[in-house]
Design the sequence.
């Protein structure tokens, strides 16, 4: 078995600068082995001898640049991950939304393969069965977005859900789909899957949201990038809108745009202005 090509310090630095420029991801020195191992497969598939040649390739090949971002993006998720957020919605948010009787929009930013936005849709459908709502699911990684759009998951990942939820929201696969489950069409119709790079100057979505989930995403960005994103998320929320962060994240905001409401749950502060 041939060894992986050598990744020089200069090539690693160039790759780090490029992934930061394109996706805002700040990679530390400790990520060198991860970059080397994940990109080694791309080099073999493209029959490229070394990382220097690969860097030359992605300078002009936008498709391969997108592939590089996909390969280096970590995607870890599951249905009802960090369940306290969904409990909070059901107990403290949805009753008021249901009483108001107006359409609702939630954005799952960094949705990975779709478990999070479908979990949001399930929670809404259970608590507000007659309500009109839309969940926008976005990610930068085209490969995981394809999975989210398809809505097909291994039975092992669905098995943790109650039998009632499995029956109501999923179809068990047969034949070549044995061992997998598909999200039912009526639920999938509530979820709009979009490719959005949070670093882009303009986001290709219209209007504002009642809530935004951006969990375990900002930990990959440096602090200035995090602060800019917090401002932009604030702009995209309706008055009294909610922002959900990951369990390992805290907003570097000092209460300027958001106020802590629950465990990594924040409410939009009104009257704030962008710096």
Sequence:
């Amino acid at each position: 078995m041939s060894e992986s090509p050598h990744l020089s310090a200069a090539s690693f630095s160039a790759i780090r600068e490029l992934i930061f420029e394109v996706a805002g991801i700040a990679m530390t020195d400790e990520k060198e082995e991860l970059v080397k191992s994940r990109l080694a497969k791309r080099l073999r598939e493209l029959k490229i001898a070394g990382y220097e040649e690969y860097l030359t390739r992605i300078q002009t090949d936008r498709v391969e640049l997108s592939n590089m971002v996909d390969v280096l993006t970590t995607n870890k998720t599951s249905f009802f991950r960090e369940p306290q957020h969904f409990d909070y919605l059901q107990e403290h948010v949805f009753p008021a939304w249901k009483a108001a009787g107006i359409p609702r929009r939630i954005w799952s930013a960094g949705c990975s393969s779709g478990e999070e936005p479908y979990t949001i849709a399930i929670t809404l459908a259970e608590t507000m069965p007659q309500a009109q709502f839309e969940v926008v699911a976005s990610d930068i990684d085209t490969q995981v977005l394809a999975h989210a759009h398809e809505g097909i998951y291994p039975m092992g990942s669905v098995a943790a859900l109650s039998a009632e939820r499995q029956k109501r929201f999923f179809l068990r696969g047969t034949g070549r789909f044995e061992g997998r489950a598909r999200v039912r069409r009526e639920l999938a119709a509530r979820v709009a899957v979009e490719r959005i790079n949070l670093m882009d100057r303009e986001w290709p979505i219209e209007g504002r949201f009642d809530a935004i989930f951006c969990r375990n995403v900002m930990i990959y960005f440096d602090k200035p990038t995090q602060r800019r994103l917090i401002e932009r998320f604030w702009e995209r929320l309706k008055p009294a809108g909610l922002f959900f962060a990951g369990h390992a994240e805290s907003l570097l905001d000092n209460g300027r745009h958001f106020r802590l409401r629950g465990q990594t749950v924040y409410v939009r502060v009104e009257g704030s202005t962008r710096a």
Remarks:
- The first strand starts at residue 104 and ends at 109.
- The radius of gyration is 20 Å.
